């Protein structure tokens, strides 16, 4: 009896210690600068146009000048952190006629900055922004297209996150990414995913930032705290066997991208409770797509983080005044204090993931026709312990949890398996957690 009581007390004490927040995360939030984001958005907008098919020779105008400037900023950051970033271009040739928006052969060039992890260097967390911009005609690559919000804001946020996080060492690697060809067909992401798969990179997830600077919606709502997290419910690479299993065991909204969205929601509410993360149960906006999709298509976890209230008069529009409305994606419509907040959301979640151990690869659940839920999972090197999560089947978030220590199986007595969904996360000594893993096996 004394032994059982001691074990119970150890679990309670461990649960309390792992529930604490980490001061470094608050420091990261404070270090993000709205002024630096404003400077970078202004610079990107001042390239005139960043259309994928625009000028690549000029030093002051066009996508060529923009991507060289982005690389130079990553190089400066790397120089300031003792060459902690590996900065490079990655390109693919897209041939004329590939789709109606490719009217000439073009090299789609991405800018990649990799901050290598110390413990899991082949495990990558990605933050991306899009380099390119467009006006009303997607094939107009000569007229001014400043793209201040879409998507200089996301690109500037990615550069700023690199400035802040480069001051720290992480267990896992972080990639700061400028993607091209988004407006012409998501070509930058497609090309990079092929390379990552060929090189065997372990991609934990991508945070695609596409428009993080507008607070005044066309719906009349003004909010500097709301933001959306788009995520698909299950991987596009799901097998027929997995699909059939879902009919009996559940998991319709528990794919890896949805777990990544829940992770961002939880971390944000813990460290930035003033923010209102809105989890949208959809791959992207209705019938539309963003640059996390190529990663989703390849089976990687990926989400889109963006403003909650869009203004369509400022997206994909020729700059003009019409019927008293000023159209165009120009600097005056970007709220840099808001962009700072969403940049901080990205930064703290990447840091939390990069300081966390990998998630268990195998999670099995049992307890069919029993009064208790049972679990087994694969051991994770570097994990100090594990947490069991559960929630009502109708709840969008993991509402209940129990830290169970450094074990690989556990029984939740008195909790009936039929009434809840469950998952397991691994936990570091500092209390940082992996994303929750939904059970992928059954035992009796």
From TrEMBL:
A Gene Ontology molecular function term for this protein is: metalloexopeptidase activity
Q: What Gene Ontology biological process does one annotation of this record name?
A: proteolysis
Q: Name the predominant localization.
A: secreted
- Give UniProt keywords alphabetically: Hydrolase, Metalloprotease, Protease, Secreted, Signal
Pfam families in the record: Peptidase_M28 (PF04389)
- Residue ranges annotated for the Peptidase M28 domain, each copy included: 110-316
Q: Which PANTHER family match?
A: METALLOPEPTIDASE M28 FAMILY MEMBER, PEPTIDASE M28 DOMAIN-CONTAINING PROTEIN
Which sequence ranges form a coiled-coil region, renumbered to this chain? none
Q: Name one GO cellular component term.
A: extracellular region
Q: What is this protein called?
A: M28 family peptidase
Signal peptide span: 1-19
- What are the subcellular locations of this protein? Secreted
